[in-house]
Amino acid sequence: MRLSPEQLQRLGARARLRDLLFEACGVVALLVALLVLAALFLQLLLDGMPRLRPDFLLAYPSRFAEQAGILPAWVGSALLMLVAALAAVPVGVAAGVYLEEYAPRNRLSDLIEINVSNLAGVPSILYGLLALGLFVHRFGMGQSVLSAGLALALLILPIVIVTTREAIRAVPGEVREASYGLGASRWQTVWHHVLPYSGAGILTGVILGLSRAIGETAPLITLGALTFIAFLPPAPATAQPPFVNADWLAAPFTALPLQIFNWLSRPDPAFQANAAAAAVVLILMTLAMNGLAIWLRARARRRLSW
Known about the structure:
Helices cover 73% and strands 0% of the residues. The chain contains eleven helices and no strands. α1 (5-48) packs across α11, α3 (71-102) crosses α10 and α6 (145-169) crosses α8 (186-214).
């Protein structure tokens, strides 16, 4: 059945109308989500604004709300993110490269791929239990920064692997073929061409994993993290040779989510304001990590464009 030009025009107009309606629904949904997030952040900011002062960031916790601070909490969160990144990123990227570029396509690799994807959705409390049995009891690391950082590394490792594979898969096959055609080996192709082209996507996956890890509480509670600590771990760097100090890895710790949970459990409204201020600091730390990743990604893209 042939359609007349008028009927074709009406069908085209209906299709364009449906596209506009779908686009409008998407924009409305996005605006609603952004408004809700902005309202929640604004409420936190208003509640915690009286406590957002330099002494709040540089003071230790106290039983008096007006004197309490979050110095050990945000330092502990920063150290945990350092350990998690150093442990998860090299292993995750290497695993993603192997699975995508080197692993043979057989049942074993398919099984590994399915299990890695499933691990990305495992509840965080299970990683805490795994770390408690493996790192604390089996390896004798104790309830330390190292064991907690490795627990968070296990948590984000599947995310890093999956996003690395997706980023590598997005690199055009012509890039590999051109490299092989010029006589490059597989490793030279991966190192000089595939990884630079997929670096932006890999960085996105890393920051998504770290953004999830910085707000986790369940694994830290399982590992016995302290909710009240009035001292800092030893400094990672020293002024004396060899200028590196590893004692901080074995130190007890706390983190911002634990400090927020501790203050929220108290009925005093002053501690509620402290919790709101600490939550604002946690959000700003997450935004700072995202900003760093965006800057690194933009820099990597500029280098490729040269």
